[in-house]
């Protein structure tokens, strides 16, 4: 059931294109980000009405919070200093900062074309740098340190997205999008686990085409990894104590575009960016419904004080919608 919420019309450029390649060909022309650029159409594609209405209220509205950027990615809600959103504008080589009170500002420039971001158990910002080819951490004093940048002495491809396990370890994907056609130093595209305490790096999975978005179930016992290459699906692994994984079956298939950024809510439902919006899946992989977005989403996260705002980075803009569910604490 496709349900329009208002009649405002908007275009949907590149909705079904290969999303992870788009930032590489984004216009180099200067653009000025804008705040509060006006209303957007709010539409839902509902497959299971009873479950969907536990997630999205009938009167929920999609907001466009800012636009005029080049290619937005990697949103994360940072809980310190009253709370603020950080996200990447990859071709602009900067991280952006947004709050309802202060609007949009530059958080860090240059960012070395940072893509995915998260916060660790101590609230410090963790970022994956494409051109830096490393995973970095922002310290409380403002300094930036390299956590890990090599596998068996060889440089990573272009770390893409990162998630923190409850044990404090960092799990990240390393496709080759940021290499822009250059050969991979280690000749593959892996998913990694890094323990900041011991500095041990281990390989989680080797059989992805383009490993991309990554997230954990709320209890950390399941790992979800999106493959935005030829498979265009999300796989799920069982996580054992100490970081070993098993399984890896296909959790769900994306029917429009590709899966990119993914997140679990507090109930273990999986939210995935896709060609036509945000797809919401039950813990068993059934499609509950979609939040349709005017521009192709690249990533998403839960945020604000109650964790019930879903922020969506989509091409040139930042969007948000208030939900009935919340992200895991």
Overall average residue pLDDT = 91
CATH class bucket? Mainly Beta
The CATH superfamily label reads TolB, C-terminal domain
Structural class: mainly beta
Largest sheet: 6 strands, antiparallel
Strand numbers in spatial order across the main sheet: 1-3-26-25-24-23
What coarse outline follows from CA principal-axis ratios? globular
> Would you count the extended β strands for me?
29
Task: Give the name of the CATH architecture.
Answer: 6 Propeller
> How widely separated are the two ends?
32 Å
The helix tally amounts to 2
Output the radius of gyration.
Answer: 18 Å
Task: Give start-end ranges of low-pLDDT stretches.
Answer: 1-21, 23-30
Q: Which percent bin holds the helix content?
A: under 10%
Q: What is the strand content?
A: 35-45%
Q: What would the CATH topology be?
A: Neuraminidase
The number of distinct structural domains comes to 1
Q: How would you describe this structure to a colleague?
A:
The strands form seven sheets. Strands 1-3-26-25-24-23 form a six-stranded antiparallel β-sheet. The two termini are 32 Å apart. With 329 residues, it is mostly beta strands. It contains two helices and 29 strands. The chain has a single domain, classed as TolB, C-terminal domain (Neuraminidase, 6 Propeller), CATH 2.120.10.30. The radius of gyration is 18 Å and the shape is globular. The protein is 2% helix and 45% strand.
């Amino acid at each position: 059931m496709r349900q329009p919420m208002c009649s405002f019309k908007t275009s949907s450029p590149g909705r079904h294109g290969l999303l992870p390649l788009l930032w590489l060909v984004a216009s180099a022309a200067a653009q000025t980000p804008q705040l509060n650029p006006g209303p957007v159409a709010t539409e839902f594609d509902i497959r299971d009405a009873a479950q969907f209405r536990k997630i999205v209220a009938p009167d929920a509205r999609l907001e466009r919070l800012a636009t005029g950027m080049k290619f937005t990615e990697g949103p994360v809600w940072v809980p310190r200093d009253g709370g603020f959103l950080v996200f990447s504008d990859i071709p602009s080589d900067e991280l952006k900062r947004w709050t309802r009170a202060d609007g949009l500002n530059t958080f860090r420039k240059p960012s070395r074309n940072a893509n995915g971001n998260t916060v660790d158990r101590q609230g410090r910002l963790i970022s994956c740098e494409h051109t830096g080819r490393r995973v970095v951490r922002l310290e409380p004093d403002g300094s930036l340190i390299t956590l890990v940048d090599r596998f068996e002495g060889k440089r990573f491809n272009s770390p893409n997205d990162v998630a923190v396990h409850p044990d404090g370890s960092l799990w990240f994907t390393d496709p080759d999008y940021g290499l822009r056609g250059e050969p991979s130093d280690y000749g593959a595209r892996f998913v990694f686990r890094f323990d900041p305490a011991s500095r041990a790096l281990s390989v989680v999975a080797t059989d992805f085409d383009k490993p991309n978005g990554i997230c954990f179930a709320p209890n950390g016992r399941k790992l979800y990894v999106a493959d935005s290459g030829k498979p265009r699906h999300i796989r799920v692994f069982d996580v054992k104590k100490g970081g070993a994984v098993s399984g890896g079956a296909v959790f769900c298939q994306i029917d429009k575009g590709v899966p990119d950024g993914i997140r679990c809510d507090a109930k273990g439902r999986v939210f995935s960016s896709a060609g036509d919006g945000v797809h919401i899946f039950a813990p068993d992989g059934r499609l509950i419904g979609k939040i349709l977005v005017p521009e192709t989403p690249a990533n998403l996260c839960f945020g604000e004080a109650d964790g019930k705002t879903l922020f969506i980075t989509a091409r040139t803009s930042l969007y948000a919608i208030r939900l009935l569910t919340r992200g895991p604490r």
